Amino acid sequence: MSGSRSVSWLALPVALVMTLTACGGGGAKDSAAGENPDGTVSIYGTEPKSALLPGDTTEAGGSKAVDGLYSRLVAFKPEDGSTSNLMAESITSSDAKVYDIKIKSGWKFHDGTEVKAKNFVDAWNYAAYSPNAQQAGSFFAQIQGYDDVHPADEAAKPATDKMSGLEVVGDYEFKVTLKGAFSVFTSQLGYHPFSPLPDVFFTDPKAFEAKPIGNGPLKFVSRTPNASIKLERFDDYKGEDKVHFKTLDIKIYSSQETAYQDLVAGKLDFMEALPPSAKIGGKHKADLGDRVLNANLLGISTIGVPSYVAGYNNLDLRKAISLAINREQITKTVLADSYTPVDGWVPPGIEGYEPGVCGEFCKYDAAKAKEYFTKSGFTGKLTIQSNADGGRKEPLEAACNSIKQALGVECEFVGATNFGAFRQIVDGHQLTGLSRSDWSADYPSIENFLNPLYRTGGSSNDTVYSNPAVDALLAKADSTADKGAAIKEYQEAHKLLAKDLPSIPVWAEKGIGGFSKNLTAAKLTFSRDADLASFRVKG
Amino acid sequence: MGRYVLRRLLQLIPVFLGTTFIIYALVWAIPQDPFAGKCGQRPCPDSYISAMSDKFNFDDPLVLQYLKYMGNLLTGDFGDTFSGISVGEQISTAYPTTVKLAVIALLIEGIIGVTAGVLTGLRKQGFLDNLVLVSTLFLISLPVFVTGFVLRLYLGPQGLDLMDTGVDTADPSIGQLILPGFVLGSLSMAYVARLTRGGIAENRRADYVRTAIAKGQPNSRVVGVHLLRNSLIPVITFLGTDLGSLMGGAIVTEGVFNINGIGGLIFRGIQEKEGVMVTGIVTLLVLVYLLMSLIVDLLYAVLDPRIRYE
Amino acid sequence: MSDPGAASSGSGLEQAAAAGVGDLSHVDSGQGQNKPRSLWSDAWRELRRKPTFVISLVIIFIVVLMAAFPTLFTSVDPRYGNLDNYLKTPSADAWFGYDVQGYDVYARAIHGARGSLLVGLFSTILTVLIGSVVGIFAGYAKSWVDSVLSRFGDIFAGVPFVLGAIVILTTFNTPTENPSAVRIITQVVFSIAVLSWPVAMRIMRSATLVAKQQDYVKAARGLGASPLRIVFRHLLPNTVAPVMVYATIALGAFIGAEATLAFLGIGLRPPVVSWGVMISESRDYFQAAPHMLLFPAGFVTITVLAFVMLGDAVRDALDPKSR
Fold first, then answer.
1. Membrane topology per the record (chain B) (predicted)?
2. Is the CB of B36 less than 8 angstroms away from the CB of A420?
3. What percentage of chain C carries pLDDT values higher than 90?
4. Cα distance between residue C55 and residue A198, in whole Å
5. From the CA of C181, how many Å to the nearest CA of chain B?
């Protein structure tokens, strides 16, 4: 009835929006003026799901605070994640099994006590000890003696609360013995569960949780649940990644949409990811102009083919499905150009990445797809499962439509309400068809894209893929001390995957973030974090 | 009157227990893994699961769990979430926002609704009357989130930039809450207008009004004193009940405008399976709702001399 | 009178509808029994002349036709997505444009009528059925039974509608299965009905309370008629009017509720196509492609409007005071 009227009523504001935002985009450049070393920076955050302990934080919400509060032995270069010593003076190993770690002296915790070798050892032991129920406990599984502090059987009381592989040699030196050779251990050391904890933590963990004390560039000020976490520059900080502002305000948002509005309006200074609505049609470029940030992320999206689902254990079918997905078109449209098609199981930007590993099967070819499909003899309906929220549904539904049209087979997206519900299906091996299988690296290494996902019994081997040849190559690579040689062996394992297609590589996310006009510089890291050291506040 | 209140209060107890138990059972007892997805891409460590199971008494039978929980609640302890944050604290930061929003919505719907209702009720069948009738029908039919989204988009910073629509702060100002309040109150506003209009139109023909007019009282006095007073009784009770449900947090409106009130808290709580949070808030809301409806009933008796409770 | 003012909870619209009907039940049933036949025929005569009544009937007829025979309106497959048409705006080929998957929005809106209408219809039937049975029983039975039943109703009425629906739907969305369309719809219908029946019950109960006091009912009881006969022969015909009006408005309200639940991501979902599903899909794209939201939302609004107008008109016609 009032359809036509309301349309014209809406059209006018749309035109206005466009002119307004266009103006906003242009005005950002003329600001090379001074810099305010004591400014405040606010960054987008979500409510942490655990206390702000390095060993108990495994998700993005808490990581933001934890990353600023604690500094680890090594730091990652923001661009590509290559490692350099931060708190470590030197990390040496002759066999990739026993590591001798020397730390710099003179570093202080925020309470003024000095950071010593035992702070690392104690913190790691605490995180690994199963009665402490730290979520990142399994990160220490490589260390000798882990099974004694964290038995496989949850009910069993651990024999001891100290891992035998950790040994304090002096105030500034300790030794780590792994269960076996593991060449990427140094990369792992940059991950936040490997942070040190001050002595005061062990006397009263509860009080510490309320006011954490770290050794990082920022110290804890206050936290209001669901509203904000405030940190302040630690003036005694010795590392190179000092910050150039005074206060960091992690503002908790429940929606990226509002946060984005605030970013554009200058009420929020940094977002490491933008909401889908901002990316459609390149709206963010118009809104933010040269304040859009890009980064190579170390993540990859694949469509998992669970080996336990009847009918899918069929190589021709997997090839047909892979050939039938029009990656180019989907990334350009539904994914709003914020993803790029991939051609292998390791994303570009990782050391050891080789182009075209997946080869012809990761390129869209409807005719060839149909050919393989006929050969496979599959009948019935294909399904792709995933959680439907957070923009996960749209690209997979599009993939399904692409498959449907290329193969002439019925394909349906099956959504679980949220990530938890979906993980429950995946963890319980109750998938009934294809499934979303996204992986982002814990630490920048080709190893992290292979071992957890494709090794028999790997911690996130959700498709229950098992190939002895792959296992053997991975085991060999793990125990190769020389990094370069190890990478070569991981590459071999990677190539074997292309023969089996245990999962179908589809796309990788581009890191797209943005900063407000209050800042003159900011950087987005490979792990989609704020590189706080690069932030400069306008004077 | 006193006996009536006492009886009603006693009746509240089983209702309160029933409602909270149903919610508690729905949240905790249905066989579902509360830990799924809690630890990112990996399953949770067993040690974490057993520690949390202890903390929340997962291993007890349901009724016992519920009683333990209620016991804590009665002593004012709302418990902690999985991440160890006090639920009581979260509620006490979120609740003022919700109350503020509810009051604003109520004021908007009351003022606009009654004005529109009085104007049209006095002049039935005119242009204004039809306009209000059609627009209230339209408001009633429009889903709240559509109103919310459209207004937010076209009035907010990315549209006409008339007001600030991102309310994602712990303590929003009154100005920030006006638009959400309007959206929240729009449906009831339409209903208040119709209720007032109906009352006025009906009472205008009542004997006491005719008498007043015949006595030669000025028009303003007839309307202001005689007509309004009697026509507004159902409106006031409606507003009272409405306040009860508005205080329950507007999940949709708070969601659209990202207001950190009770509604947003509970929606996130359900999604993240923070059972302690959900049951805690629901218990509180049920209590508020039940008390509000009791007050409304009593108000009815005070306002309408024809009703007497025994 | 034990609780004269206690209005319902429920979704906002339904609440408003029910409160209005409550007034009707007091007035109408008393009048109705004096000369029932002429009341209904009077009402019908008045209704036929009312433009809102005719308009709403026409709209409802069209929507029902859409739901029953979508192919009369469109020949496009609503599940055929072609990304070449990604987010294309309305044109002569696709009147309502295309959505993010390249689906034809018009075709989906037509096919979506069925899901939305089914939810509205079944929820209403279930709500009215449970509510009426309990309500008439409570109204007719001894006072302690009435008390117990009323308090039982209060238990469900005390849960805010959206909140209750979220809890129920999240809980019963057992994620380990691929739910079929039937199951998804059933879940939504049940959760709406479970939270709404106390409203219907109250209306039925108060109508029964009034009707029970009428002389002819007392006479029938004096003559030894069985309770069942009294309920069906004498009470039901006189209590049906307010419930009917409520049902009409509630049907509209439940279609709106379906959209709201879908918007929150917990109502109907694919493979079911409904207006609510379309609305929830449009959420992220609203700014770039408003047509994705506005068309299905328009369908919802117009349909709800039709039912509310119908209920309004019938209530006015049945209420002698408004003439």
1. Multi-pass membrane protein
2. yes
3. 10
4. 75
5. 22
CATH ID of A299-509, from 3.10.105.10, 3.40.50.1000, 3.40.50.300, 1.10.101.10: 3.10.105.10
State the Cα torsion B118-B121-B122-B124 to the nearest 10°: 150
The subunits that touch chain A, with at least 3 C-beta pairs less than 8 Å apart, are B, C
Could you give the dihedral angle defined by the CA atoms of residues B23, B26, B28 and B30, in that order, rounded to the nearest 10 degrees? 170
pLDDT of B253-302, one tens digit each? 887 777 778 887 887 777 666 777 888 888 888 888 788 878 877 777 77
Residue C84 lies in a domain: no
Residue C9 in domain? no
Chains that touch B (3 or more CB pairs under 8 A): A, C
Sketch the domain layout of chain A as residue ranges: 45-208, 218-296+511-537, 299-509
CA distance B221 to chain C (A): 25
Instruction: Supply A199's token pair.
Output: 């002595």
Asked if A522 contacts A222 with a C-beta cutoff of 8 angstroms, the reply is no
Least confident of A352-361, A522-531, B300-309, C158-167: B300-309
Mean pLDDT across chain C, nearest whole number?
78
B287: nearest CA partner in chain C = C158
Residue A232: its H or E element: strand A228-233
**CATH at C128:** 1.10.3720.10
pLDDT in tens, A379-427: 888 999 988 777 788 899 999 999 999 999 999 888 877 777 788 788 8
Closest among B126, B305, B116 to B229, alpha carbons compared: B305
Domain of C219, in residue numbers: 71-78+93-308
C246: closest CA of chain B, how far (Å) = 15
Determine how many CB atoms are found less than 10 A away from the CB of residue A23: 9
**Residues 110..139 of C with a Cβ closer than 8 Å to B: which?**
none
What's the first-to-final CA gap in chain C, in angstroms? 28
Which amino acid is present at C252? G
Q: Which chain B residue has its CA at the smallest distance from C195's CA?
A: B19
Sort C92 into a burial class: Cβ within 10 Å, 0-12 / 13-18 / 19+.
Answer: exposed
Residue C58 in contact with partner chain A when CB distance is under 8 A: no
CA closest to A429 among chain C residues:
C176
Q: At residue B101, does pLDDT exceed 60?
A: yes
Binary contact (A17, B83; C-beta < 8 A) = no
**C window 225-264, beta carbon within 8 A of B:** 252, 256, 259-260, 263-264
Q: ipTM above 0.95?
A: no
Q: Which of B83, B154, B169 sits opposite A49 (nearest CB)?
A: B83
Q: What is the mean pLDDT of chain A?
A: 85
Contact C298/B at CB under 8 A: no
Residues of chain B with C-beta less than 8 angstroms from the C-beta of C301: 138, 141-143, 146
In this structure, whether the domain defined by A218-296+511-537 belongs to CATH 3.40.190.10 is answered with yes
Q: Chain B residue with minimal CA distance to A458?
A: B42
User: Which CATH superfamily groups domain B90-307?
Assistant: MetI-like (1.10.3720.10)
Number of domains comprising chain C: 1
Q: Which residue of B has its CA nearest to C259?
A: B143
- A350: enclosing H helix or E strand: none
Judge whether C315 lies within some domain: no
Confirm or reject contact between C266 and chain A (CB < 8 A): yes
The CATH homologous superfamily to which domain A45-208 belongs is Dipeptide-binding Protein; Domain 1 (3.90.76.10)
